Amino acid sequence: MSWPRIHHPRRQRLWGSGYFRRLGPGLVTGAADDDPSGIGTYSQVGATAGNGLLWSSPALFPFAFAVQESCARLALVTGKGLAALIKEHMPRPVLLIAVAAVAIANSFNVAADLGSMAAALRLLVPVPQAVGVLGFAIGITVTEVLVPYHRYVRFLRWLCLSLLAYLGVLAVAHVNWSDVMTSTLLPHVVFSKTTMVALIALAGTTISPYLFFWQAAEEAEAEAGGEPDVSAKHLAAMRGDVAAGMASAVIIMFAIMATAAATLHADGITEVSSAEQAASALEPLAGRFASVLFLLGIVGTGMLAIPVLAGSTAYAVSEAAGWKEGLERRPGQARAFYAVIVGSILVALVLNYAGINPMHFLYLAAILNGLTAPLLLVIVWRLARSNKVMGNWRSGRWSQGTLIATAVIMIGLPVLWLVAP
Q1: Range of the domain at 179
Q2: What is the distance between the terminal CA atoms of the chain, rounded to a whole angstrom?
Q3: How confident is the prediction for the chain on average, in pLDDT?
Q4: What integer pLDDT is reported at residue 238 of this predicted model?
Q5: Are 407 and 374 in contact (CB under 8 A)?
Q6: What is the distance between the alpha carbons of residues 196 and 198, in angstroms, rounded to a whole number?
Q7: Measured between alpha carbons, how far is 97 from 368 in angstroms, rounded to an integer?
Q8: Which residues of the chain have pLDDT under 50?
């Protein structure tokens, strides 16, 4: 008799020694949320608004958690990725629109992250931008394609520690903690186009469609060849994993915004066009050590986020097309899947060498994510509450309500921007 493979076996219990080793897709997904493009966004918001929008970090946590928990639950119960479930239960045009929008947005995001990493490296070591972009692209592609996922995920998990660089930067910055706590706990919202744009950017960066596909795909990764492993205990462990990941995402978001507010905003610098520009501006205000930490964090988070971006594209496209997929498979076993990963990074390389400003990549990616996220949120809500799909493991009322509230917020913010003074 062949027994089903245990899904993420190290994650079956929540507490005890070795907690970091047991965390899986949730931690990696949350850490990948703070990619170089996100770092640039948080720096810009902190420089523009000061401490005024720090409250958004804890406020976004329950929404981000509910979304990623639902995606993880879908995969854990069904053993399928998000695109595969959309293909099975939704009209084909919905599948094509969702997958195409995510794939295009991811390519622009990868391009921006490669450019930011190369620029950050150039500020540390005199390496030409073109060489840095190519070097990072080749290194990340080779690693993701040739190293099996059970080994590769260890590398990704340790890269999550690069986020600690931003806590280090916050520790050495001259922060007015009294003002920080007041702004965080007692929010004061100025209804203006500037505020609405900032909130749209923060919500879109924290709740991004590519994270939905990656979370579900990696939850399903260990199910290949076995029955889905579902139990109340395992669902609780999955929630702990997701909570740890999304908590890390919003904590680092908070740290970067607070640092930018205490340094850039306090010194009258309100325009930041990239993460590396923020790092350069930090040096005369917070010291060389802070600047170097910030730059190293950009490189580390980029090495974590780009595989997630390219991987989520490959999972989405492969599941939609019915191709064999999975980072645990060898390249010869999933040629089309790995071809999508390589193709996504190649497109990003071409965009970089075309001389387009990386911020334009982010702008286009943000538009596509903003248009796609509400649609996907409604899809996830419908699937997660379906008895046909989930049986006895369907999402509860709190989760369903939070998903709908998230979709309403992401639709409502652009509307508020249109009517704001």
Answers
A1: 10-419
A2: 68
A3: 82
A4: 84
A5: yes
A6: 5
A7: 11
A8: 1-7, 14-20, 225
